[in-house]
Specification:
This protein is mainly beta. The protein has one domain: Immunoglobulin-like, CATH 2.60.40. The chain contains 2 helices and 7 strands. It has a 4-stranded antiparallel sheet, with no helix packed on it. A 3-stranded mixed sheet has the order 4-1-7, with no helix packed on it. Strand 5 (88-93) and strand 6 (99-104) form a beta hairpin.
């Protein structure tokens, strides 16, 4: 119940931002871990919103498939992360490192459009 109320509160507070942005659909974390991918040089940005009841780790998966720890995102915290199109981002449980979700920055997140894509961490 608290999780649902938190998400509703975030959506109400960020209503116009969500309307002007695209929400990224998470992909299975295991589909990205350890897999190389072609990089795209177009800059973009993702707004990560943690609505989970615990902090999470944000990890960038490089084009070579290796993981690079970036930051901790607290409960209810939002972070705008500059990135590039095709870059992969993994979210793990901060307590035990369990992969939770993964996101891929897409062309519609290109920074020159002025909007961020939204990645709601559920």
């Amino acid at each position: 119940m608290v999780r649902c109320l938190t998400l509703v509160a975030i959506m109400l507070c960020a209503g116009p931002v969500l309307a002007d942005s695209d929400e990224l659909i998470p992909v299975p974390a295991n589909a990205l871990i350890g897999r190389a991918y072609p990089a795209d040089g177009a800059p973009s940005q993702i707004r990560f919103i943690n609505v989970r009841p615990a902090p999470v780790n944000l990890i960038w998966i490089g084009a070579d498939g290796r993981e690079h720890a970036y930051r901790l995102i607290g409960t209810g915290e939002e972070v705008i992360q500059p990135t590039f199109v095709t870059h992969r981002w993994l979210v793990t449980d901060s307590r035990d490192g369990t992969p939770l979700e993964a996101f891929i920055s897409t062309r519609s997140a290109a920074r020159d459009e002025g909007t961020s894509q939204i990645a709601v961490i559920r």
